[in-house]
Write a structure and sequence with these properties.
Blueprint: E1 2-10, H1 14-21, H2 27-30, E2 35-40, E3 52-57, E4 60-71, E5 75-83, E6 87-99, E7 102-113, H3 119-142
Antiparallel strand pairs: 1-7, 2-3, 3-4, 4-5, 5-6, 6-7
């Protein structure tokens, strides 16, 4: 099992950061991870438990993620339910905590590599992707 954890301090209130992060469709605008659309709404609607978000690039959907836990405005847990290429058994958790007048986001995941020997390379790719998305979120919220 591989593990990734990244953190980012964003100078905005927890509720503001939570609202933007969990507005899954807005990821298209700030995450750098391609297009994101809702395949199914969750509870509370539209972005809560049971919601399925789909990420695509160049018109090809590569990953479907389902929200498993939605503790407003503190914690969200999700897992990849379809796609993911060489990534298997991916489950992620995102925490939102007040810190230094802003919000400390901790984003962690665990996964298995479907390709023997590629776990380290996949871990590095996910870490870059998570850091880039959080940097995009911070920029989006700053202005």
């Amino acid at each position: 099992m591989q593990h990734v954890e990244v953190q980012k301090l964003i100078p905005a209130p927890v509720q503001t950061v939570w609202n933007r992060y969990t507005d899954h469709v807005s990821w298209t605008e700030w995450s750098g991870m391609g297009n994101c659309r809702l395949e199914r709404e969750g509870v509370p609607a539209p972005n809560g438990v049971g919601c399925i978000r789909a990420f695509s690039r160049f018109g090809i959907t590569a990953v479907y993620e389902q929200v498993l836990l939605f503790e407003i405005p503190q914690r969200m847990v999700y897992k990849i339910v379809k796609g993911g290429g060489p990534i298997g058994d991916h489950e992620g958790e995102v925490l939102f905590e007040p810190s230094d007048g802003g919000t400390l986001i901790t984003w962690r995941c665990k996964f298995n590599s479907k390709v023997p020997g590629m776990g380290g390379a996949i871990r590095a790719m996910i870490k870059r992707m998570f850091n880039g998305a959080l940097e995009g979120l911070a920029k989006d919220l700053s202005g």
